[in-house]
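User: Could you walk me through two proteins back to back? I'd like the raw sequence and the structure tokens for each, with a short line separating them so I can tell where one ends and the next begins.

Assistant: Of course. Protein one, sequence then structure:
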Amino acid sequence: MKSIKEPIKAADWYLVREIVGDIFWVNEPGHVSFYVFRSNNKGLMIDSGLGLTTKIGKGLLKFLGITELVVYCTHSHCDHIGLNHLAKKVIIGRREWEKYIEQNESDQLRHYYNLLKSEKEWPRGEIELHNTNLWSPSEFISEGDRFEFGRWKFQTLEVPGHTCDSVIFYEEVNNLLFLGDLIYSGTLYFHFRDSNFSKYEKSLDKLLQFINSCQGNVSLWPAHNQIPLAPPFLKDVKEVISAIKSRVIEPASSWPKDEMFEEGLRFSKNDVKIVLRKDEYANIRKD
């Protein structure tokens, strides 16, 4: 397969762009992005998107010339694990997998679709919302774990907050940091049952320290919205977190409990938007 110099539509759904030789940014328009490393006919995905139909998933792999796949998951939400069932190996945090089972997150895609079906673009044909595309981890990953794929070398960092056992992956050959949902432009959601705002603040500090420890400029690749992410946005979010904790800004509106989210409160300042679980905000106000 030739190099992809300009964005190309694959399987009549995915928008594929090449970051640098054999490293691809794959976007599901209006939904989520994930990343693919290709070494001959083998592929490594960092997350695997929504997986709205098996047909388009297989079409993406065929487009990229991949016949054997491994997926490393930043976390277990439905927009990050959709093609896991097509992989030979799936690697995720142990507690993240346990929570996936405990909270029946295999049904999360149905909730996601019902919440957004009139607001988002979807691929043609029937969306697969049932629980037939089952997967399970081949192994678990945790803080500091290193692995290699082809000519690339990766390091794992645990960054709980958005979920209980989120991780991110640093590719050291090209100085690429894959953020999952740790941080991205747009609304940051901290009102899942297992979200933890205090842990998130520590994870954001950890991210900033890690970036400062790296040699050269680190490129930030989140799962949503502006990609790559502009580094100053990290400090913008940190400032808003401090403003929420010190009561400098108050909730702008509320988010009712639904099938995916707990009852939440919305905060907004400049370009930073945060939804915080209501009970966590009550605990912050007590401190």
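----
Protein two, same layout:
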Amino acid sequence: MENFLYVDTETTGLDPCRDELLSVSVLDNDNRVLFHSYIKPRHRRKWRDAQKIHGITPELVKHAPTYTMVKKYLADIFRNRKIVMYNAAFDTDFLAESLTDCDSIHCCMLEFAEYNGEWNDYYNDWKWIKLTEAVKKVSPQFTFCAHDSLEDCKATREIWQFLKNRKNTTTETEEQKKSM
């Protein structure tokens, strides 16, 4: 299997023009943690709605590094690497400065949506599935604490490896049929 990095963030909200990072995690294919840290926002001081979801309080990030302090380090980790995120469009908006030299970015959510095969007529596209639901479908025994960036990386890795193993198995079976 190719060597991917799994990346996830937690933020003060959903708007990358206004909101900021609160946590970033990076995991490799072997489940090794390459980066995992709270991030102190430079401008936002409160994020009550987001806090209800992920539990990250202003007190938890008070002594954390800012994104400015870690973005070069993250860029070095990402350089020439294949990055997988569950909702890549969201996370890349917040990590754009660190992702400029990565090899490629893959959206596990979009690939899982296609695998899942449920069509959304309203959006004329495959229906997006929450990370918690997707991981239950591919690995019912897998447990994790959703909305924690490191735990979400682990769940994304579980789904991605399932999709890649399935794709490799399908390709091998098709090649075997052709050679008969």
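The longest helix spans residues 149-179.

Let me know if you want the two compared in more detail.
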